[in-house]
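Design a sequence for this backbone.
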């Protein structure tokens, strides 16, 4: 607790940087460039994310959207990890502090992506941003999440279904790998708690953002992926 109180302003700085980077919504920016001012939030499903860009604008803009969403998330988590590494230098549990910091900075980047300060707080659903955060925070979780998504998508051809199921499995995979760290590598108990709670918050956030998709899935109306040529 003393560590947090002494460095509270540095924590806020890390979270602020992550939020600002997340607020650089690639779908909105790239669509404006390719359509000479068009707003992706007024097209297709109205979501400022990769899938809607793919369907409404085209393959190249969609690919660029993914690339820049990945880059901003990686940057946010990497910067956050570096800040937490500096703070925890010399501490016994430095590795645990760094990973928890990455998870928390990833959460704020996802919040920024979905509620971007630069675009009237109307952004995307955070799937690509969340996946990129996992890659930097814990590559083990990323690999099993990616495998889960690909299996569901190949079977269903529905991106939202793969995203929702993967999001639901995120805290499950997180606690699994954190317990391995706890029992076999000596990580502290609070590390397991902090990472799992953060993963659960991200899951709830993603599920809420996909509420309309869930309703369409239940009704059998969710569209399979088809790109605009």
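Sequence:
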């Amino acid at each position: 607790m003393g560590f947090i109180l002494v460095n509270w302003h540095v924590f806020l700085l890390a979270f602020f940087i992550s939020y600002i980077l997340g607020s650089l919504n690639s779908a909105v920016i790239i669509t404006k460039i390719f359509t000479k001012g068009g707003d992706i939030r007024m097209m297709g499903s109205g979501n400022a994310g990769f899938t809607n860009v793919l369907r409404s604008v085209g393959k190249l803009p969609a690919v660029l959207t993914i690339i820049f969403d990945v880059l901003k998330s990686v940057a946010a988590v990497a910067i956050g990890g570096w800040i937490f590494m500096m703070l925890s230098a010399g501490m016994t549990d430095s590795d645990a502090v760094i990973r928890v910091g990455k998870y928390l900075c990833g959460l704020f980047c996802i919040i920024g992506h979905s509620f971007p300060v630069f675009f009237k707080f109307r952004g995307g659903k955070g799937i690509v941003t969340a996946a990129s955060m996992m890659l930097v925070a814990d590559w083990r979780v990323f690999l099993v999440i990616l495998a889960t998504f690909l299996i569901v998508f190949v079977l269903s051809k529905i991106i939202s279904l793969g995203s929702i199921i993967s999001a639901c499995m995120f805290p499950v995979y997180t606690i699994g790998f954190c317990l391995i760290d706890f029992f076999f590598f000596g990580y502290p108990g609070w590390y397991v708690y902090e990472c799992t709670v953060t993963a659960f918050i991200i899951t709830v956030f993603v599920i809420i953002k996909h509420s309309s998709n869930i309703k369409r899935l239940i009704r059998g109306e969710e569209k399979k992926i088809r790109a605009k040529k």
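Residues 2-219 form one domain.
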